[in-house]
Amino acid sequence: MANAIVVGTQWGDEGKGKIVDLLTERFDVVARYQGGHNAGHTVVVADRKYVLHLIPSGILHPRKVCVIGNGVVIDPFALDREIEALEAEGIVVAGRLFVSNRAHLIMPYHMAMEAAEEERLGEARIGTTSRGIGPCYEDKMARRGIRVGDLRDLRRFRSKLEANIELKNRFLEGIYKRPPIQLAEVFEEYCEVAPRILPHVADTAEYLHRASRQGKSILMEGAQGTLLDVDHGTYPFVTSSNASAGGACSGTGLGPNQIDGVLGISKAYTTRVGSGPFPTELNDAVGEEIRRRGVEFGATTGRPRRCGWFDAVVGRYATRINGLTTLVITKLDVLDELEEVKICTGYTIDGEPVDSFPVDVFELERVRPAYETHSGWCCDTSGITAYRDLPSQARSYLERLSELIETDISIVSLGPNRDATIILEESPKLQALFCRN
Fold first, then answer.
1. Residue among 28, 37, 41, 61 flagged as catalytic
2. Residue 158 DSSP class
3. Maximum Cα–Cα distance for the chain, whole Å?
4. Active-site residue 203, yes or no?
5. 331-357: per-residue pLDDT in tens?
6. Is the dihedral of CA 40, 44, 45, 51 positive or negative?
7. H or E segment at 308?
8. Residue pLDDT, tens place only, 228-262
9. Taking the complete model, does pTM exceed 0.90, yes or no?
10. Mean pLDDT across the chain
11. Is 13 among the residues known to form the active site?
12. CA distances (Å), origin 367, targets 94, 265, 286, 316, 363
């Protein structure tokens, strides 16, 4: 079996959770490689909805192993609540979930710092969830972070915590005029949660290497999407980690020669949350209709997502950045009632064509999308399970997307349930993800 990466190709929220859940039966291990609990995966199984923020959606499959890799930042209380919620549903987590001892811990001062900075920025704010993700990554890169493994030695943990709180309180009190963080209170809370987290903690890089050597297949998933990658996204309106496929190696410890393919996930239209440029955004009745039909509200925050037409410029860019093997299109059914659908095929600035996706957000804010208009199919596709049974207009739309983004489409999702999916099993590129050469 192959080792594969699942990656979002837009601004996140592409439906990765459902696709990972769907593909897990073909893999032995599912590993998360970056992000934190600011992301949310919604999976529907037998009409029951599960919302997961840290644990890979593969946990919903009995006998599958899930890994939270070293590239993830972890709020231990959020993780503990997620484990409890799964166990309350009868899902066995013990022995099936391993958390990297190298993953960094989100602390109360991270959340306090992020909320204070967003307030200070005012209208220029990034639009973060204020869950401490960015400041935790900042401390990681500044080499003052506290890792999950530090919970095994509470004396060492307290020493690091004391030094960090002293530093953060200088900012909170002196610059942001916020109340200080109390060392004793934080230490006590983390001491209480540690025994519930530590049974899951392991050297996950070693575990994944051993599993791969034994011939087990690994499915790696990231949070957010390519356009939110800290290096390749719409900086500074990005997340604080590498959400593109390249982050899978650094975030799990697996080498690039152990990756056999990359599966991109894209909605049949485009959404984004928070601030930042969005060339195909629809601030009209059509955009509102897409939001309503697609239930485009954040799984974590409940914030309404901005909605727009499919952007093939973004799609081509994501194909190159991630080295996509093949693509999944999700939420095609959301477009069922539209009489016409549009595809952005290119950009212009001041009337001149733009050759590639602009890396400068100020340029991206100036682009004007060039659209193709296609006939809608105006019928319900939600129960269709074979590609040939899709309306001809829907097939034409998908085939044009594939042509424009220069990637084969091998899976089409038509709703949140597992079985509301068309899998083109005959696709050689899809098969390449399931069978190692």
1. 41
2. H
3. 66
4. no
5. 999 999 999 999 999 999 999 999 899
6. positive
7. strand 306-308
8. 999 999 999 999 999 999 999 999 999 999 999 99
9. yes
10. 93
11. yes
12. 50, 24, 21, 16, 7
Quote the CA–CA distance of 342 and 372 in Å, as a whole number.
6
> 157, 101 in Cβ contact below 8 A?
no
Catalytic residue among 13, 75, 139, 260: 13
* Residues whose CB is less than 8 angstroms from the CB of residue 295 and which lie 6 or more positions away in sequence, other chains included: none
428's enclosing H/E stretch is helix 428-434
Provide the token pair at 66.
């899930």
Burial (Cβ within 10 Å: 0-12, 13-18, ≥19) of residue 409: buried
* Residues 43, 326, 245, 323, Cα dihedral to 10°: -170
Q: Which amino acid is at 55?
A: I
Helix (H, G, I), strand (E, B) or coil at 229: coil
Model confidence at 428, pLDDT cuts 50, 70, 90, reads confident
Tokens (6 digits) for 111: 């959340």
Distance CA 254, CA 209 (A): 7
The DSSP secondary structure of 235-288, one letter per residue, reads TTSS-SS--STTHHHHHH---GGG--EEEEEEESSEEE-SSS--TTB--SHHHH
363: how many CB neighbours lie within 10 A of its CB?
14
Rounded to whole angstroms, the Cα distance separating 284 from 368 reads: 17
